[in-house]
Specification:
alpha+beta; five-stranded antiparallel sheet; three-stranded antiparallel sheet; 13 helices; DUF4806 domain-containing protein; DUF4806
Protein backbone atom coordinates (compact mmCIF):
# COMPACT_ATOMS: atom_id res chain seq x y z
CA UNK A 1 0.00 0.00 0.00
CA UNK A 2 1.45 3.38 -1.04
CA UNK A 3 1.26 6.53 1.02
CA UNK A 4 1.29 10.17 0.06
CA UNK A 5 2.64 13.19 1.89
CA UNK A 6 0.25 16.06 1.24
CA UNK A 7 0.18 19.73 2.15
CA UNK A 8 -3.22 21.11 3.03
CA UNK A 9 -4.06 24.30 1.20
CA UNK A 10 -5.46 26.81 3.65
CA UNK A 11 -8.18 29.18 2.61
CA UNK A 12 -6.33 32.03 4.33
CA UNK A 13 -3.45 32.69 1.98
CA UNK A 14 -2.01 35.33 4.33
CA UNK A 15 -0.72 32.75 6.80
CA UNK A 16 2.67 31.14 6.12
CA UNK A 17 1.87 28.10 8.25
CA UNK A 18 2.07 24.82 6.36
CA UNK A 19 0.11 21.77 7.45
CA UNK A 20 1.44 18.46 6.16
CA UNK A 21 0.34 14.90 6.86
CA UNK A 22 0.89 11.40 5.54
CA UNK A 23 -2.21 9.66 4.18
CA UNK A 24 -2.98 6.45 2.29
CA UNK A 25 -2.92 7.14 -1.41
CA UNK A 26 -6.50 5.85 -1.69
CA UNK A 27 -7.70 8.95 0.19
CA UNK A 28 -6.76 11.21 -2.73
CA UNK A 29 -9.59 12.29 -5.03
CA UNK A 30 -10.21 14.55 -8.01
CA UNK A 31 -6.85 14.02 -9.73
CA UNK A 32 -4.96 14.17 -6.44
CA UNK A 33 -6.13 17.73 -5.72
CA UNK A 34 -8.38 16.79 -2.78
CA UNK A 35 -8.15 14.24 -0.03
CA UNK A 36 -10.79 12.78 2.26
CA UNK A 37 -10.19 13.20 5.99
CA UNK A 38 -11.70 10.92 8.65
CA UNK A 39 -13.08 11.92 12.06
CA UNK A 40 -10.32 13.14 14.36
CA UNK A 41 -10.99 10.38 16.91
CA UNK A 42 -9.90 7.61 14.54
CA UNK A 43 -7.47 9.53 12.32
CA UNK A 44 -4.19 7.86 13.34
CA UNK A 45 -5.78 4.41 13.39
CA UNK A 46 -7.22 4.81 9.91
CA UNK A 47 -3.89 6.02 8.53
CA UNK A 48 -1.88 3.17 10.05
CA UNK A 49 -4.37 0.54 8.88
CA UNK A 50 -4.84 2.15 5.41
CA UNK A 51 -8.57 2.22 6.03
CA UNK A 52 -10.54 2.85 2.82
CA UNK A 53 -12.29 6.25 2.75
CA UNK A 54 -15.99 6.56 3.42
CA UNK A 55 -18.53 8.77 1.71
CA UNK A 56 -19.28 10.90 4.78
CA UNK A 57 -15.65 12.01 5.20
CA UNK A 58 -14.86 15.66 4.57
CA UNK A 59 -12.77 16.61 1.52
CA UNK A 60 -9.98 19.18 1.80
CA UNK A 61 -7.86 20.73 -0.97
CA UNK A 62 -4.28 19.45 -0.89
CA UNK A 63 -1.04 19.48 -2.85
CA UNK A 64 0.85 16.19 -3.09
CA UNK A 65 4.46 16.55 -1.93
CA UNK A 66 5.73 12.97 -2.01
CA UNK A 67 4.64 9.44 -2.86
CA UNK A 68 6.14 6.82 -0.53
CA UNK A 69 6.11 3.05 -0.50
CA UNK A 70 5.88 2.64 3.28
CA UNK A 71 4.20 4.44 6.13
CA UNK A 72 7.50 4.94 7.96
CA UNK A 73 9.03 6.77 5.02
CA UNK A 74 5.94 8.93 4.65
CA UNK A 75 6.05 9.87 8.35
CA UNK A 76 9.72 10.86 8.08
CA UNK A 77 9.09 13.07 5.09
CA UNK A 78 6.01 14.58 6.73
CA UNK A 79 8.01 15.47 9.84
CA UNK A 80 10.84 17.00 7.78
CA UNK A 81 13.44 14.31 8.57
CA UNK A 82 14.65 14.06 4.99
CA UNK A 83 17.96 14.52 3.23
CA UNK A 84 18.75 17.82 1.51
CA UNK A 85 19.10 16.11 -1.85
CA UNK A 86 15.57 14.78 -1.51
CA UNK A 87 14.10 18.21 -0.95
CA UNK A 88 14.05 19.33 -4.57
CA UNK A 89 12.85 22.68 -5.84
CA UNK A 90 16.27 24.32 -5.36
CA UNK A 91 16.91 22.70 -1.99
CA UNK A 92 14.63 25.07 -0.14
CA UNK A 93 14.84 25.39 3.61
CA UNK A 94 12.45 23.08 5.40
CA UNK A 95 10.10 24.85 7.76
CA UNK A 96 8.78 23.11 10.87
CA UNK A 97 5.61 21.36 9.89
CA UNK A 98 2.46 20.68 11.83
CA UNK A 99 -0.09 17.93 11.50
CA UNK A 100 -3.41 19.02 10.09
CA UNK A 101 -6.38 18.66 12.38
CA UNK A 102 -9.76 20.20 11.47
CA UNK A 103 -10.84 19.93 15.09
CA UNK A 104 -7.77 21.83 16.31
CA UNK A 105 -8.32 24.56 13.73
CA UNK A 106 -11.90 24.99 14.88
CA UNK A 107 -10.80 25.01 18.53
CA UNK A 108 -8.21 27.74 17.83
CA UNK A 109 -10.80 29.90 16.08
CA UNK A 110 -13.23 29.44 18.96
CA UNK A 111 -10.56 30.37 21.49
CA UNK A 112 -9.65 33.48 19.52
CA UNK A 113 -13.26 34.61 19.48
CA UNK A 114 -13.58 34.08 23.21
CA UNK A 115 -10.38 36.02 23.83
CA UNK A 116 -11.57 38.97 21.79
CA UNK A 117 -15.00 39.04 23.45
CA UNK A 118 -13.74 38.53 27.01
CA UNK A 119 -14.60 41.27 29.50
CA UNK A 120 -12.68 42.17 32.66
CA UNK A 121 -14.46 41.04 35.81
CA UNK A 122 -14.96 43.23 38.84
CA UNK A 123 -12.57 41.19 40.93
CA UNK A 124 -9.80 41.60 38.36
CA UNK A 125 -10.52 45.35 38.02
CA UNK A 126 -11.44 46.91 41.35
CA UNK A 127 -11.37 50.41 39.78
CA UNK A 128 -14.26 49.50 37.48
CA UNK A 129 -16.84 52.28 37.11
CA UNK A 130 -19.76 49.83 36.93
CA UNK A 131 -22.18 50.21 39.80
CA UNK A 132 -22.75 47.39 42.24
CA UNK A 133 -26.52 47.27 42.01
CA UNK A 134 -26.82 44.53 44.62
CA UNK A 135 -24.97 46.62 47.22
CA UNK A 136 -27.01 49.71 46.37
CA UNK A 137 -30.23 47.75 46.72
CA UNK A 138 -29.31 46.32 50.14
CA UNK A 139 -28.21 49.78 51.35
CA UNK A 140 -31.50 51.24 50.22
CA UNK A 141 -33.52 48.57 52.03
CA UNK A 142 -31.56 49.00 55.27
CA UNK A 143 -32.06 52.77 55.12
CA UNK A 144 -35.80 52.36 54.64
CA UNK A 145 -36.02 49.83 57.46
CA UNK A 146 -34.11 52.09 59.85
CA UNK A 147 -36.30 55.05 58.95
CA UNK A 148 -39.33 53.15 60.23
CA UNK A 149 -38.03 53.31 63.79
CA UNK A 150 -37.88 57.12 63.69
CA UNK A 151 -41.35 57.57 62.11
CA UNK A 152 -44.34 57.59 64.51
CA UNK A 153 -46.79 54.71 64.13
CA UNK A 154 -50.43 55.21 65.00
CA UNK A 155 -51.70 52.73 67.58
CA UNK A 156 -54.87 50.92 66.57
CA UNK A 157 -56.19 51.06 70.15
CA UNK A 158 -55.91 54.87 70.47
CA UNK A 159 -58.90 57.09 71.27
CA UNK A 160 -61.28 57.16 68.36
CA UNK A 161 -62.99 54.07 67.01
CA UNK A 162 -62.63 55.07 63.40
CA UNK A 163 -60.20 57.08 61.37
CA UNK A 164 -60.90 59.62 58.73
CA UNK A 165 -59.83 59.08 55.17
CA UNK A 166 -57.03 61.62 55.59
CA UNK A 167 -55.75 59.90 58.75
CA UNK A 168 -55.89 56.49 57.03
CA UNK A 169 -53.98 57.89 54.10
CA UNK A 170 -51.34 59.44 56.32
CA UNK A 171 -51.10 56.23 58.33
CA UNK A 172 -50.50 54.23 55.17
CA UNK A 173 -47.80 56.66 54.11
CA UNK A 174 -45.95 56.11 57.38
CA UNK A 175 -45.15 52.49 56.49
CA UNK A 176 -42.40 52.45 53.87
CA UNK A 177 -43.12 50.43 50.75
CA UNK A 178 -40.72 49.77 47.88
CA UNK A 179 -41.93 48.69 44.41
CA UNK A 180 -39.20 46.73 42.67
CA UNK A 181 -39.88 44.72 39.51
CA UNK A 182 -43.63 44.89 40.16
CA UNK A 183 -43.15 43.33 43.64
CA UNK A 184 -44.34 45.46 46.55
CA UNK A 185 -42.26 45.04 49.71
CA UNK A 186 -43.61 46.27 53.08
CA UNK A 187 -41.71 46.47 56.34
CA UNK A 188 -43.03 44.58 59.34
CA UNK A 189 -43.56 46.59 62.50
CA UNK A 190 -40.84 46.18 65.08
CA UNK A 191 -38.47 44.31 62.72
CA UNK A 192 -36.24 45.18 59.86
CA UNK A 193 -37.40 42.19 57.77
CA UNK A 194 -39.43 42.54 54.62
CA UNK A 195 -42.25 40.44 53.20
CA UNK A 196 -43.66 40.40 49.74
CA UNK A 197 -46.99 42.15 49.36
CA UNK A 198 -47.91 40.01 46.39
CA UNK A 199 -46.06 37.42 44.31
CA UNK A 200 -44.59 37.94 40.89
CA UNK A 201 -47.11 37.81 38.02
CA UNK A 202 -44.84 35.39 36.17
CA UNK A 203 -44.62 33.00 39.14
CA UNK A 204 -48.34 33.09 39.77
CA UNK A 205 -49.05 32.42 36.10
CA UNK A 206 -46.77 29.38 36.09
CA UNK A 207 -48.43 28.05 39.22
CA UNK A 208 -51.87 28.57 37.75
CA UNK A 209 -50.89 26.69 34.59
CA UNK A 210 -49.50 23.81 36.62
CA UNK A 211 -52.64 23.62 38.73
CA UNK A 212 -54.83 23.65 35.63
CA UNK A 213 -52.84 20.76 34.10
CA UNK A 214 -53.04 18.86 37.38
CA UNK A 215 -56.80 19.38 37.55
CA UNK A 216 -57.23 18.23 33.95
CA UNK A 217 -55.26 15.03 34.58
CA UNK A 218 -57.16 14.38 37.79
CA UNK A 219 -60.48 14.84 36.00
CA UNK A 220 -59.45 12.45 33.23
CA UNK A 221 -58.46 9.81 35.81
CA UNK A 222 -61.76 10.22 37.63
CA UNK A 223 -63.70 9.93 34.38
CA UNK A 224 -61.79 6.78 33.45
CA UNK A 225 -62.46 5.18 36.82
CA UNK A 226 -66.12 6.08 36.63
CA UNK A 227 -66.40 4.58 33.14
CA UNK A 228 -64.58 1.46 34.28
CA UNK A 229 -66.90 1.09 37.24
CA UNK A 230 -69.96 1.32 34.99
CA UNK A 231 -68.53 -1.27 32.62
CA UNK A 232 -67.84 -3.66 35.47
CA UNK A 233 -71.35 -3.23 36.84
CA UNK A 234 -72.81 -3.87 33.39
CA UNK A 235 -70.73 -7.02 32.98
CA UNK A 236 -71.78 -8.21 36.40
CA UNK A 237 -75.45 -7.69 35.58
CA UNK A 238 -75.12 -9.63 32.35
CA UNK A 239 -73.35 -12.48 34.12
CA UNK A 240 -76.06 -12.63 36.76
CA UNK A 241 -78.86 -12.72 34.20
CA UNK A 242 -77.20 -15.31 31.98
CA UNK A 243 -78.21 -18.91 32.42
CA UNK A 244 -75.17 -20.84 33.61
CA UNK A 245 -73.97 -23.20 30.95
CA UNK A 246 -73.70 -26.78 31.91
CA UNK A 247 -70.04 -27.55 32.23
CA UNK A 248 -68.83 -30.71 30.63
CA UNK A 249 -67.29 -33.01 33.14
CA UNK A 250 -64.65 -35.22 31.59
CA UNK A 251 -65.45 -38.76 32.36
CA UNK A 252 -62.83 -41.35 32.85
CA UNK A 253 -61.63 -42.83 29.56
CA UNK A 254 -63.41 -46.24 29.48
CA UNK A 255 -60.66 -48.02 27.53
CA UNK A 256 -57.38 -49.27 28.88
CA UNK A 257 -54.81 -48.83 26.11
CA UNK A 258 -52.57 -49.95 24.60
CA UNK A 259 -54.98 -52.03 22.55
CA UNK A 260 -54.16 -55.71 22.24
CA UNK A 261 -56.47 -56.52 19.32
CA UNK A 262 -58.01 -54.95 16.24
CA UNK A 263 -61.45 -55.40 17.80
CA UNK A 264 -60.65 -52.88 20.49
CA UNK A 265 -59.69 -50.36 17.79
CA UNK A 266 -63.07 -50.83 16.12
CA UNK A 267 -64.80 -50.36 19.48
CA UNK A 268 -62.86 -47.12 19.93
CA UNK A 269 -64.11 -45.91 16.54
CA UNK A 270 -67.71 -46.49 17.63
CA UNK A 271 -67.01 -44.71 20.91
CA UNK A 272 -65.69 -41.63 19.08
CA UNK A 273 -68.90 -41.22 17.08
CA UNK A 274 -70.42 -39.28 20.03
CA UNK A 275 -69.22 -35.72 20.51
CA UNK A 276 -69.03 -35.77 24.30
CA UNK A 277 -67.06 -39.02 24.29
CA UNK A 278 -64.71 -37.60 21.66
CA UNK A 279 -63.76 -34.89 24.16
CA UNK A 280 -62.72 -37.57 26.64
CA UNK A 281 -60.41 -39.08 24.02
CA UNK A 282 -58.91 -35.67 23.19
CA UNK A 283 -58.19 -35.04 26.87
CA UNK A 284 -56.55 -38.46 27.10
CA UNK A 285 -54.22 -37.62 24.20
CA UNK A 286 -53.37 -34.20 25.64
CA UNK A 287 -52.27 -35.78 28.89
CA UNK A 288 -49.70 -37.87 26.99
CA UNK A 289 -47.65 -34.82 25.89
CA UNK A 290 -44.31 -34.62 24.09
CA UNK A 291 -41.34 -32.36 23.36
CA UNK A 292 -41.88 -32.04 19.59
CA UNK A 293 -44.05 -33.56 16.89
CA UNK A 294 -41.89 -36.66 16.58
CA UNK A 295 -41.75 -37.33 20.30
CA UNK A 296 -45.45 -36.52 20.74
CA UNK A 297 -46.54 -38.82 17.87
CA UNK A 298 -44.32 -41.68 19.05
CA UNK A 299 -45.69 -41.46 22.60
CA UNK A 300 -49.28 -41.56 21.26
CA UNK A 301 -48.51 -44.64 19.21
CA UNK A 302 -47.01 -46.42 22.20
CA UNK A 303 -50.02 -45.46 24.31
CA UNK A 304 -52.60 -46.70 21.80
CA UNK A 305 -51.10 -49.84 20.24
CA UNK A 306 -49.00 -52.75 21.35
CA UNK A 307 -46.23 -53.98 19.08
CA UNK A 308 -48.24 -57.11 18.31
CA UNK A 309 -51.22 -55.10 17.02
CA UNK A 310 -48.94 -52.61 15.28
CA UNK A 311 -47.48 -55.45 13.16
CA UNK A 312 -50.94 -55.94 11.66
CA UNK A 313 -51.38 -52.26 10.79
CA UNK A 314 -50.08 -49.84 8.19
CA UNK A 315 -50.96 -46.30 7.24
CA UNK A 316 -52.59 -47.11 3.88
CA UNK A 317 -53.42 -50.80 4.50
CA UNK A 318 -51.13 -52.24 1.84
CA UNK A 319 -50.21 -55.94 1.81
CA UNK A 320 -53.49 -56.83 3.49
CA UNK A 321 -52.66 -54.82 6.59
CA UNK A 322 -55.18 -52.98 8.71
CA UNK A 323 -55.35 -49.35 7.49
CA UNK A 324 -55.21 -46.74 10.24
CA UNK A 325 -54.75 -43.59 8.15
CA UNK A 326 -58.48 -42.92 7.76
CA UNK A 327 -59.58 -43.77 11.31
CA UNK A 328 -61.14 -41.14 13.61
CA UNK A 329 -58.72 -41.95 16.40
CA UNK A 330 -55.78 -41.21 14.05
CA UNK A 331 -57.27 -37.95 12.70
CA UNK A 332 -58.04 -36.70 16.20
CA UNK A 333 -54.50 -37.61 17.27
CA UNK A 334 -53.10 -35.50 14.40
CA UNK A 335 -55.28 -32.56 15.46
CA UNK A 336 -53.92 -32.72 19.00
CA UNK A 337 -50.29 -32.97 17.86
CA UNK A 338 -50.73 -30.17 15.30
CA UNK A 339 -52.27 -27.88 17.91
CA UNK A 340 -49.36 -28.51 20.24
CA UNK A 341 -46.37 -28.53 17.83
CA UNK A 342 -47.76 -26.92 14.61
CA UNK A 343 -46.53 -29.88 12.55
CA UNK A 344 -47.85 -30.70 9.09
CA UNK A 345 -49.97 -33.69 8.14
CA UNK A 346 -47.05 -35.12 6.19
CA UNK A 347 -44.71 -34.98 9.17
CA UNK A 348 -47.29 -36.69 11.37
CA UNK A 349 -47.90 -39.45 8.79
CA UNK A 350 -44.17 -40.07 8.35
CA UNK A 351 -43.53 -40.57 12.06
CA UNK A 352 -46.65 -42.73 12.52
CA UNK A 353 -45.83 -44.93 9.49
CA UNK A 354 -42.20 -45.43 10.56
CA UNK A 355 -43.32 -46.47 14.01
CA UNK A 356 -45.71 -49.07 12.56
CA UNK A 357 -43.06 -50.37 10.17
CA UNK A 358 -40.56 -51.15 12.95
CA UNK A 359 -43.14 -52.85 15.21
CA UNK A 360 -41.84 -56.36 14.49
CA UNK A 361 -38.24 -55.39 15.33
CA UNK A 362 -39.35 -53.90 18.63
CA UNK A 363 -41.37 -57.00 19.50
CA UNK A 364 -38.43 -59.35 18.81
CA UNK A 365 -36.07 -57.10 20.77
CA UNK A 366 -38.42 -57.11 23.75
CA UNK A 367 -38.79 -60.91 23.59
CA UNK A 368 -35.03 -61.43 23.60
Amino acid sequence: MSFAVVKFISENSDTDEEIVSEIPISWLTKNNTFCKWPPEKYCSLYISRSFPPEENWIEYPVAVEYICDTLTEAKQKAKGNIEVEDVGRGCRTIKPLEYFSPAEEEEKARGQRKKEGKTVSKKDNPNSTERNYHADFMTFLNREANSEETNPIINEDSGSDSLSEQDQTSNLDLQPAVAINNIQLKSIEGTGSLISGHSSPTTSTVKDDQMKKFDEKLDSICNFLATLKLDLEEIKEKMDTMTPQQKFEIEKFPFQPPFKSLTEIEELEQYLSIEEQRKCYIQFLRNIGGNDHKDYTTRICKSLLTNTVAELCSWLGRKNNFAVGHLQCTNIAFGVVHHKTRCSRKEFETVFSEWLRHAKQRRLREKN
